[in-house]
Amino acid sequence: MPLAPPTVRKAHPLPLTALVLLALCAAPTAAGPHPDTPFVNDAAPDAPKSVRPGRAWEEADYRLPAWPRDADLIEVKLDGPQQPLTHYIDARSLQTGSDGVVRYTLVTETASGARSVGFEGLRCTPKGRWKLHAVGSDGRFTPPRMGDDWQEISATAPDPLHDELWRHYLCIPRAFSARATRDQLRMLKSGRVPRVENAGFLSD
Fold this sequence. Notes:
- The protein has three helices and ten strands.
- By secondary structure, the chain is of the alpha+beta class.
- The chain has a domain at 70-193.
C-alpha cells in the first residue's frame, strides 16, 4: 500500500504591525544613558576654549601670632539673648591671608573670669567655614593635638559667635569675600552692622 504524502501546512503571512515590531527588536540600539531606546541622543556641545576648570582651593602657610594683650582685645558683640561666654578678638592678630582666610586670635572668657585662647581661621564661603589653627597656653600657641578640619558654620549652633563673625563682621554680605582689615576692625569696634549692609547672606 503506497504511503500518503506528508501534509504540508500553508504558512500564514504575519501582520504588518508584527513585522515592524520584529524589525525594531532586531535592530541594534545605541549605547547611552537609555539603552532601551533606538534613538541616539545629541552629543553634548563642546565648551568654549576660553573656559578652563578652576584651580582647587589650597590653604596657604601662616605664622602663629604673638600672645594677645588686654589693650588690643575687642569684644565681639552678639545679637540675641545674653550669652554665658564673652568673646574678644585680638586686633593685632587680625589679618586676611593670600588664600582668603581671615585669621585672628580669639579670647573667650567665662562669667567667673576664666579664659581660653585660640588662633582661628574663617573662610567667607557661601556657608562659611572655620578652623582652629592653634591653642594658647602659658603665653604661647601650639597646634591642637588632633588636627582640626574646616567646620561648616551653623546658624543654629549653641554659641552664635562664628555665624556672627561670618555674617556681619569679617565677610562682605553676598560677595563671599573678606572685608578689608580696617573695615573689620571698624565693624568690631562699633559693635553693629550699618543698615545698608544688614541684609546678611542669601539663605540656603
